[in-house]
Design brief:
alpha/beta, 232 residues, 5 strands, 5-stranded parallel sheet
Length: 232
């Protein structure tokens, strides 16, 4: 099913008009109309924002999920998906979302001019996000290995004796082991491996928890490609 049809379906489920969706996305209602009739497609960079407004995963929005086969999962059926559940899992409660500059001040980040090709582990349960990160990193000359879960990443590191990868780009909100749990295990067993957290869950409590567990950087979603590449 084309993305326009999926947008129209989920917009209808939320009871939104084309004008209301357009306003939420800062686009024209004509743009939304053209998407829905298949005359044009939203830019790939807009997909995370559209998914957030329509409360659907980016994978389903792109036709990679189970659209049309089931109703959206209730919150109680989404393990580790809600913001509050993840905050509680790291004993931090707060509702202040930090911007990238505020995150950088916590990590004491300073840009470096040095660049070289690296082997990067991309760990994210979203097919769309792994695909986008692979394109961004690959275009900058880096080699990428994708993992769809924290468990898969740790199994691969153990199988390779942890000696191959240079950097791990790690999502936080994943089913099974969340990113903070994976970070803790990586820093315990593979302490030389640099880890950059990449997440929309960027409250002060979570960012500071990531720093405490040994993260080397934290990039807030949605993100600019240059922001991630600088940290790599």
């Amino acid at each position: 099913m084309e993305i326009g049809n999926i947008i129209r379906e989920y917009r209808g489920r939320k009871g939104m008009t084309q004008e209301e969706l357009a306003q939420a996305l800062s686009v024209t209602s004509q743009a939304v109309s053209r998407w829905e009739i298949g005359a044009s497609y939203p830019d790939i960079a807009m997909v995370p924002g559209i998914a957030k407004v329509l409360e659907v995963s980016a994978d389903e929005l792109l036709g990679c999920g189970n659209f049309g086969k089931r109703e959206p999962l209730s919150e109680q059926d989404k393990p580790m998906r809600s913001y509050s559940a993840l905050v509680k899992s790291v004993q931090g409660i707060g509702d202040s979302i930090l911007n990238q500059s505020q995150i950088d001040s916590i990590f004491d980040y300073a840009s470096s001019a040095g660049r070289m090709s690296k082997l990067v582990l991309v760990v994210d349960d979203s097919d769309f996000m792994r695909m986008m990160l692979t394109d961004i990193l690959g275009s900058a000359g880096h080699r990428v290995v994708q993992h769809g879960s924290g468990e898969e990443c740790l199994e691969k590191l153990q199988a390779d004796n942890g000696i191959r990868a240079d950097v791990c780009v790690l999502d936080i909100n994943m089913p099974g082991l969340n990113g903070l749990e994976v970070l803790e295990k990586i820093k315990k067993d593979y302490s030389y491996l640099k880890v950059i957290m990449l997440s929309a869950l960027c409250t002060e409590e979570i960012v500071k928890k990531a720093l405490e567990l040994g993260a080397d950087g934290f990039v807030a979603k949605p993100f600019q490609a240059s922001s991630l590449l600088e940290r790599i």
